[in-house]
Amino acid sequence: MARLIGGPFGLVSGKVGDVVYRNRGGNTRVSVLPKQRTSPRSEYEIALQTKFALAGKIARGINSIAILKYFWKPTAYNGRSSCNIIFKNNYALIDVKDLSGAILVAPLFGFNLLNPSITPGKQNILIECQSMTGNPSFDLKVEKFVCTAGVIVLKNPSDEMLPIHDVIPFKSKKQIFYPDKQLLVDLEISGGQLALYQSYSIKKVFAVFVTIDEDESPVHHSVTFSNKE
């Protein structure tokens, strides 16, 4: 059932018969419900649906972490949400077959890292970086701390009732920021996330380092890096 928002001359939202009204950015968009199909989906359609579903999970996971969402907000335009922009930027990069494709946890341009590495364990993930030198943009009077954040993309569940792919977002605790020293993050996975993590045989981790100020507000992010499968 459709309803008026903001009085008789406001926006329309909802459904009338087969017509759907949606509001985005102060504009009303009208679409028609698709007819129910009777033919089976082709392999190509199934592959597209699988990729779309994974891209959505990745986008929602990244968007759920405040310090990552912060960097995507300025890229939103035409009433699009940051989650929608994350989805658009990553959809073409994802490889659902073996997760060998890239994923942008934060926008493309970030500070460089020297020899970053990620090692998934049974109950934890080790994230290392030799140094972050060579980046003159750092303001150590402001950028007091550093943490890492990203998503763990899972594939091939041991339980057939689980989806073929799933995503776990994460953010580490903050550390004092020394850009010229080695940084080691031991990310412990626990609770329900651990059960989910251990239910999949393939684990691809995509992460960035984020510098933060005394109020834990994000300042800069690194390039995205990942583990090798």
Beta fraction = 25-35%
- What letter string, H or E per element, gives the SSE order? EEEEHHHEEEEEEHEEE
Profile the largest sheet: 6 strands, antiparallel
Structural class assignment: alpha+beta
Q: What's the tally of helices? A: 4
Rg, Å, rounded: 21 Å
Query: Low-confidence parts, pLDDT < 50 over ≥5 residues?
Result: none
Helix content: 10-25%
Terminal-residue CA separation: 49 Å
- In total, the number of strands is 13
Structural shape: globular
Draw up the topology in text.
Blueprint: E1 3-5, E2 11-16, E3 19-24, E4 27-32, H1 43-63, H2 66-72, H3 82-91, E5 117-120, E6 124-129, E7 145-157, E8 165-171, E9 175-176, E10 183-188, H4 191-197, E11 200-212, E12 218-221, E13 225-226
Antiparallel strand pairs: 1-2, 2-3, 3-4, 5-6, 6-10, 7-8, 7-9, 7-11, 11-12, 11-13
Helix pairs in contact: 1-3
Summary?
With 229 residues, the chain is of the alpha+beta class.
How would you describe this protein?
- The protein is α+β, with helices and mostly antiparallel strands and 229 residues long.
- It has two domains: 3-32, no CATH class; 43-226, no CATH class.
- Helices cover 20% and strands 34% of the residues.
- The protein has four helices and 13 strands.
- It has helices spanning 43-63, 66-72, 82-91, 191-197; strands at residues 3-5, 11-16, 19-24, 27-32, 117-120, 124-129, 145-157, 165-171, 175-176, 183-188, 200-212, 218-221, 225-226.
- The strands form three sheets. Strands 7, 8, 9, 11, 12 and 13 form a six-stranded antiparallel β-sheet that branches. Strands 1-2-3-4 form a four-stranded antiparallel β-sheet, with no helix packed on it.
- Strand 1 (3-5) and strand 2 (11-16) form a beta hairpin.
- The longest helix is centred in the first third of the chain and has 21 residues, at 43-63.
- The N and C termini lie far apart (49 Å).
